[in-house]
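Annex B. Sample input.
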Amino acid sequence: MLKAEYQRRGPVPHEVIDAVEMTLDEPRAHEVHLEVLAAPINPSDVLTLTGHYGLLPDLPAIGGSEGVGRVAAMGADVSHLSVGDVVMLPAGSGTWRTHMNAVAAGLVALHGDPIQLSMVTVNPPTASLLLSEFVDLEPGEWVIQNASNSAVGGYLVQLAAARGLKTVNVVRRESAVDGVLEIGGDVCLVDGPRLPGRVAEATGGAEIRLAIDAVAGQATGRLASTLTTGGTVVNYGGMSGEPCSIPPLSVIFSDITLTGFWLARWFRTAPRKERASMFAEITRLIATDELTAKVAATYDVSEIREAVEHAAAGERDGKVIVTPRHD
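Annex B, continued. Sample output.
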């Protein structure tokens, strides 16, 4: 058994984590023993390794915040699951490992591709909530986002289309345009100083009330400048490493609002029924292949340094997934 553990944090994320041997006790009466099948490496995981995420675990810690596993053994009191069932791993439980024990209550059997299901906890809910929690959009309206070729961006394109919304998708390189259009983006443009005019031309001058920003810096202001009076920019990431910047003209004369979104806060405050309903919808869409994410590469736990280095690098075309071997 292996786990990807880090005992310190540092500016080069793949240098602080290692695959180390681990042991597990037999599952207790209320637990299940799981073989981890797939666990993605999210930007928040990389930021956690560098110490720049908003919520940091105590050290030493095991990397990984989501994933899926197969039930390999069950405690005596577990009756709602069966050996062989695929279940979602508890969020934030350190999922980059080959095996883990987990409390069985709340675990449900899932159906579908384990690699796609492994990404269900973080990115799809983020995309869904960005579309629904800030502006009450009607079918036929436009929404604009940057980092559109990211995992969240791809899910947002697909979910927007399913809800009858149109998307203007902004990317930072020409080579990313075709991929965004292939998954259903209505418009895809390379970011730049003349973005507002190009957006207006591409949409026929449509009013856009919602912009979704993962880049920050000057990119936030360019998105804000594409919005109609009273529009909202929602920031959920800082890929540029710079503070969000919006011109005073947008704030004063166009009444643009800038707000932020953090999924962990939503998990803490949303009613249980609301959380369950959203996950039921997302897992259904993934199980039926209506919602998918590109995968750039998969790595065993023993290759965790290479995996994290790949995930932290720019110009990836898809998510990096840890897929443990169980030799």
